[in-house]
Amino acid sequence: ETGVTQSPTHLIKTRGQQVTLRCSSQSGHNTVSWYQQALGQGPQFIFQYYREEENGRGNFPPRFSGLQFPNYSSELNVNALELDDSALYLCASSLGVQGGAGELFFGEGSRLTVL
Amino acid sequence: GNSVTQMEGPVTLSEEAFLTINCTYTATGYPSLFWYVQYPGEGLQLLLKATKADDKGSNKGFEATYRKETTSFHLEKGSVQVSDSAVYFCARNYGGSQGNLIFGKGTKLSVKP
Questions:
Q1: How much is the average pLDDT of A58-83?
Q2: % pLDDT > 70, chain A
Q3: Best B100, B105, B107, B108 residue to mutate vs chain A (most A CBs within 10 Å)
Q4: B72: DSSP letter
Q5: Per-residue pLDDT for A3 more than 70?
Q6: Rounded Cα gap, residues B66 and B34, in angstroms
Q7: Which site in A44, A79, A98, B41 is 20 to 30 Å from A57, CA atoms measured?
Q8: How far is B42 from chain A (nearest CA, A)?
């Protein structure tokens, strides 16, 4: 069973640039959620994708967008990068969207530094 | 509001000591509650969960009981090991959505031999 994999593991961008982060979900999982984890903080929910559509969004501006592909992998895109976007971005996969008590399986994250 | 508050770390204990990490939540309704753990160099992983009042989640010697009256979900372990050194996150779900979790800030635990 393949776990959740994310790429790249580290990257550095400058203000105003755009970034794309990628996530492959765990085998058999059809739902992907993205989180932002600032240094010393807990992860914050960005959005969730199910059946290639956004299915829930946290308090993040529209410049944070995503995609889910037919194989359930996903991308997180951030436009017009700001210094405060520097964080660890976590992808988590799960099976289904409802119920509220299922386990999320997290990748190790992509660490983004914005200079 | 909807939030999760957990005790600030870092927490440093000697091996075989008793561990408590406090966690309280605010919510309308009755969310599911979780403890996730992040070992050094690894991704977050579920440690235990509870889905309704008075449920007790347990795993690897850790326990937490869903207390509706005190809106708490404190993590306990009777005898910690060096291998328990990690960052522990308390979380609740939001809106019945499986993927939308609200996390606390995390508590770093270091266990010394």
A1: 96
A2: 93
A3: B100
A4: B
A5: yes
A6: 10
A7: B41
A8: 6
With an 8 Å Cβ cutoff, are B97 and A100 in contact?
Answer: yes
CB-CB under 8 Å, A48 with B97: yes
Q: Does B95 touch chain A (CB under 8 A)?
A: yes
B108 within 8 A of A40, measured Cβ to Cβ: no
Do the chains contact at A40 and B105, CB–CB below 8 Å? yes
Q: CA B107 to CA B39: how far, in whole Å? A: 12
Answer whether A55 sits within 8 Å of B32, measured CB to CB.
no
The rounded distance, in Å, linking the Cα atoms of B21 and A81 is 36
Measured between CA atoms, the residue of chain A closest to residue B6 is: A42
- In the structure encoding, which two tokens stand for residue B26, read together? 């605010």
Start-to-end CA distance of chain A, whole Å, equals 37
Buried b (16+ CB within 10 A) or exposed e, A81-101: beeebbbbbbbbbbeebeebb
pLDDT for B13 beyond 60: yes
pLDDT of residue A100: 55
State the DSSP string of A82-101: -GGG-EEEEEEEES-SBSS-
Q: Which of B45, B98, B104 sits opposite A97 (nearest CB)?
A: B98
